Amino acid sequence: SKKGFIFDLDGVIVDTAKYHYLAWKKLAESIGVNFTERENEQLKGVSRVKSLEKILEWGNKSISEDDFMKLMAIKNDDYLTYINKMDKQEILPDVERVLNLLIQNNQGIALGSASKNAKTILKKVSLIHNFDAIVDGNDVVKGKPNPEVFLKAAKDLKVKPNQCIVFEDSVAGIQAANAADMISIGIGEAEILHEADFVFKDFTEMENSFLIELINE
Ligand code: G6P
Ligand code: MG
Fold first, then answer.
1. PANTHER family from the entry (predicted)?
2. Where are the alpha helices (DSSP H) in 59-104?
3. What confidence tens digit (pLDDT) does each residue in 148-165 have?
C-alpha cells in the first residue's frame, strides 16, 4: 500500500549537523559562551531562534532584540559558507538506495525539516526532484517536538498520519513523530534516540527487506 515516508534533512540526508555545530560554536564563543557537543545535541531539530535562545540561556546572557537579530544573521551567513560548498558527495551513505527503493515502490516521499535553508541544501545535493512534498522551517509555526511539520507533510502527501514513517536524528524530531502517531525511526545512537520505534546507526544498516515490510504492513 502507499505509505508516506518523511525524511528529516540535517543529520539524516546530509551531515549538515556538523556545520550547524561549527557555526553555533563560533558564534557562542564570540559572545563568551562555552558550547559543547553535548549542548549541540539539544539543538538538533530545534529552530534557529530557539537555538540562539537556548545558547543565551546556557551562557546567562541577555541581549537586545536588535543584537539577537544580528547574531542570528551572523550564524546563518557563516553556516551558508559551508552549505555553498556542498555537492552530491555529501549525501549520507545509502540515502539514495533508500530513496530509490521507495520511488520504485510508488511510495510518498516528503521532507520534514525545521530548516529555512532546506530547499537550498536539497538543490545543492541534487535531491530536490525526489520529493513529492517539502515542509520546512518556512512553513510551520510550532517547531519540533510539536508534530505540525510532519502532519503538514502527511497532508501534502495525502497519506494518513498513522500510515507515515519518519526518519529522524534528533530527540525533538522523534518526539514530534511519536506525537503525530507516526512510526518513528531514529538515525543515530540508540541511547540518545531511545524514544524511537526503531533505531539504526545510519542507512547502511537498514536493509531493503525492512523497508519492504514497512510498505506492506
Ligand atoms: C534543523 C537542524 C537544527 C537547525 C534547524 C534550523 O532542524 O537540526 O540544528 O537549527 O534545522 O535550521 P536553519 O537552517 O533554518 O537555521
Ligand atoms: Mg536532523
1. 6-PHOSPHOGLUCONATE PHOSPHATASE, HEXITOL PHOSPHATASE B
2. 65-83, 95-104
3. 999 999 999 999 999 999
